[in-house]
Amino acid sequence: MGSVRWSWVVVAILAAILVRLPASTTLTMDEDEPIYLAASVEAGEAIRTGDWSGLSNPRLNPEHPGLVKALNGIAISQSPQPEDLITGLATVRGLSVMAGLVAVGLAAAVHPLAGLALATHTIHAKYSSQGYLDSMPMLWMALAMVLAWRHRHTERHHIWWLIGGCWGAAIAGKWLHGLPGLVLLFFIPGWSARAKVAVTSLVGWVLLDPSMWSGPVDSVLSQTALHRSYADSLTTETSWTAPLLSLVSGGPSRWHPEVFPVSLDALWAVLAVVGLWRGRREPYAHYLLAWMAVPLGVMMLWGTRWPQHTMVLVMPLCLSVGLVLRTTQDSGRSD
Predict the structure, then answer these.
(1) pLDDT tens across 150-163, in order?
(2) In the predicted model, is pLDDT for residue 278 greater than 70?
(3) CA 247 to each of CA 45, 96, 299, 312, 334: distance values in angstroms, whole numbers, following the listed order
(4) Nearest-CA neighbor of 244 among 304, 205, 302, 299?
(5) What is the reported pLDDT for 327?
(6) Residue 262 CB: number of other CB atoms within 10 A?
(7) Which of 64, 224, 289, 294 is deepest in the core (most CB within 10 A)?
């Protein structure tokens, strides 16, 4: 990466800090943050006391995988006051912000405009500033997807193991964020590489998700049943178009106008469409489109469609924005 590209990475990260630091320190606790924080504290206590059974069979929030909560728990357990609500919230949000900043840097490394888009997209800004479960797995899956495209013709085995490990970590953080990996398998050439990635991701998922340690099959069945039960219990239904509307409507600027006074989300969506159209004959554009389409299709079919779920769509959308100003050098890097 040239010095100019590094400069743009720094600029994008600085822009992201300017948006996320005020958000992480001033936003009140969101609807789902208390349960995720409590589950992280529970995981931290299990780690601190060596209660591995308690870590693999959590009492709180058992419907979601355990990697993000375990990482939060490790950080919380190192605090002098691990039970303090403010300290715990600051710790969990801090980890989410750090993952979000790395994701912005990754997008900027692919294309400066993509980094700027992700830095200012209010969906990513909000949910990488609060203690949700999405910021870290989004980063891990994005890293796997970017590496897979850049190195899809490589013969170096360790690259595929790294990609598979990142994919497995994404699944171990939140299932939804692992869906783009199916696109990855389709686009990388060669059954050997696909097998390495698939096997490594499965191994990584089992090893990194504490909830899988007591029995992977039972864990998957149990979490699936909990999700179905929750979906069936909802008294109001969201439209199948809700994920798209969340992605482009700039909701955080309406919910928190004092923190996000302006939203460029609609602009980035329009530019992403223009970029995909401009690159419609290029395999890279097809890759980005599929990256968005697979999780979007699942979300449209699934009964629970919350705004934070669209975090899985933000990275490919912002990378598509980069197609608008794509150069010959960029094309040689990704085609």
Answers:
(1) 999 887 888 999 99
(2) yes
(3) 36, 19, 12, 10, 25
(4) 299
(5) 56
(6) 10
(7) 64
The distance between the two most distant Cα atoms of the chain, rounded to a whole number of Å, is 56
Q: Give the tens place of pLDDT for each residue, 4-58.
A: 678 889 999 999 999 999 999 999 998 899 999 999 999 999 998 888 988 999 9
For the chain, the average pLDDT equals 91
Residues near 21 by Cβ (< 8 Å), separated by ≥ 6? 97
Distance, CA of 315 to CA of 118 (rounded, Å): 7
Share of the chain above pLDDT 90, in %: 75
Q: Which residues contact 42 (CB under 8 A, 6 or more apart)?
A: 54, 58, 59, 60, 69, 73
Residues 6+ apart with CB under 8 A from 326: 111, 275, 278, 279
**Burial class of residue 126 (count of CB atoms within 10 Å of its CB; 0-12, 13-18, 19+):** buried
Q: Residue 279, exposed/middle/buried by CB under 10 A (0-12, 13-18, 19+)?
A: buried
- Could you tell me the two tokens for 299? 């979300």
Copy the structure tokens of residue 55.
């870590």
